[in-house]
Amino acid sequence: MPCKEGKLLLIGDDWAEDHHDIEVQDEAGRKLAAARLPEGVQGIAKLHELLAKHGGRDLDPAAVVMGIETDRGSWVQTLIASGYQVYAINPRQVARFKERYGTSGAKSDKGDAHALADMVRIDRDQLRPVAGDSEQAQAVKVVARAHQTMIWERTRTFQRLRSTLREYFPAALSAYADLELTSTDALELLIKAPTPAVGAKLTRTQITAVLARHRRRHRDAKAATIQTALREPQLGLPEPVTAAYAATATAHARLIIALNEQIAALEVQVKAHFLAHPDAEIYLSMPGIAEITGARVLAEFGDDPSRYASAKARKNYAGTSPVTRASGKSRTVQARYVRNNRLADALQRQAFAALRASPGARHYYDKQRARETGYNPALRQVGNRLVGILHGCLKTRTHYDEATAWSHHTHTHAA
Fold first, then answer.
1. Is 334 a member of any domain?
2. Which residue range forms the structural domain that includes residue 229?
3. How many Å separate Cα 312 from the centre of its chain?
4. What pairs with residue 68 in β-bridges?
């Protein structure tokens, strides 16, 4: 049954790798249609046909409101380009919403599509539409996230390597501590000598050659330290067990070397895309922000000028602003734990670096600590303040100014 002129169509889109389960509702919550559409051009064409059938050929695209559990990919970008209102909804929000229907925890694609349609119909004011970011901002987001994901993957692989070495070759952890075991030269030495017996036979010349190839300073002294550590006596394991551990450690080491290469290559791309963005100069004017941190913050905030109505809205999205919980006579202020972890990590790094780069940030941090606020909460408050300052700079298209940014807190302190 076609919807009347001026009315909305509410769409739930539960996506998978190769298909989308769709439910179409009217404003009264009546289900008008349900369909499973293929991914890609064919699926989008069928979606347009489905909406035209129930909304009429003259359907205003802005009257189509869609809920989907992602904000990325060509499907979402095509929906936005079509003029539809698209809301990216956190899967945890969908799970909580479905508890209204029952407490069994049952899961189905059709059920999720129904819940998504209900959410954009009932709770649309509480949801966040997918930002209309520029192509440049989207490009920054793609490479910045890929770069950070690879760094996280390297950290996980290193932890596995470290755990393996502790079980059969702890001397290697001591030997390469000064080089950092994630560095390519340390990993090459480990691959060259992956067992305690072979490690003890490494000559100083062999070690120095690897360090020289990677342009290490003070390599003679470092080589002597490494050789001494590798020759320290340690408890041994049966030869077949040692060989198995060595094969595992070598595999991890080679994987980290490959990740090092790709992380370095992506870093070049992150900087290039970020510096090409018109907001880059404003971000770089902020204390504690360089190219990589700036790219990550820009990637997660986006550059849609209408996305954040106020500094408070940007802080809430960042997760830096506190949450007040009041019940009866109890009232507590706590950190937000449901937040964008990539953005939170970047802002934490910025706040830490800003303590040295900005006297105002340092004074503000010390003021919080003087109130017996813990290290992390105080740093989070600095980050929260910096987010507000960034919002003002972006809104007015001005660079950061130390005196202006902290004038209120400085005057308060002076008084």
1. no
2. 139-272
3. 21
4. 13, 88
Domain count, the chain: 3
Q: Are residues 15 and 89 in the same domain?
A: yes
Distance CA 362, CA 383 (A): 12
Residues 164 and 109 in one domain: no
**Do residues 209 and 154 both lie within one domain?**
yes
Tell me, what's the pLDDT at 99? 78
- DSSP conformation class of 331: E
Tell me the pLDDT tens digit for each residue of 341-359.
Answer: 899 999 999 999 999 999 9
Cβ-Cβ contacts under 8 Å for 360 (sequence gap 6 or more):
402, 405, 406, 409, 410
CA-to-CA separations, 67 to 70, 107, 115, 119, in angstroms, rounded: 9, 17, 9, 7
Q: Quick one: DSSP state of residue 23? A: E
At 159-183, the pLDDT tens digits run 999 999 999 999 999 999 888 889 9
Q: What tokens were used for 14?
A: 């539960």
Exposure class string for 371-394: b at 16+ Cβ within 10 A, else e: eeeeeeebbbbbbbbbbbbbbebb
Query: Are residues 115 and 13 both part of a single domain?
Result: yes
Q: Is residue 194 part of a domain?
A: yes
Strand 85-88 relative to strand 64-68, pairing: parallel
CATH code of residue 88: 3.30.420.140
Q: Does position 316 have pLDDT exceeding 80, yes or no?
A: yes
> In this predicted model, what pLDDT tens digit does every residue of 366-384 receive, in sequence order?
999 999 889 999 999 999 9
Yes or no: say if 241 and 211 are a contact pair by the CB < 8 Å rule.
no
Question: Which residues lie below 8 Å from residue 135, measured CB to CB, with a gap of 6+?
Answer: none
> Distance between CA atoms of 402 and 51, rounded to whole angstroms?
52
pLDDT value of position 403: 92
Asked whether the predicted pLDDT for residue 33 surpasses 50, the reply is yes
The dihedral sign for the CA sequence 94, 384, 393, 272: negative
Quick one: residue 175, left, alpha or beta (phi over 0 = left, psi -120 to 50 = alpha)?
alpha
Residues 176 and 113 in one domain: no
Last residue of a domain, one of 78, 106, 130: 130
In a domain, 32, yes or no: yes
Pair (381, 399) in one structural domain: yes
Is-contact 241 168, C-beta < 8 A? yes
Q: Do residues 148 and 119 share a domain?
A: no
Task: For residue 336, give the nearest of 354, 324, 353 by alpha carbon.
Answer: 324
The answer to the question of residue 403 being in a domain is: yes
Residue 3 has pLDDT above 70, yes or no: no
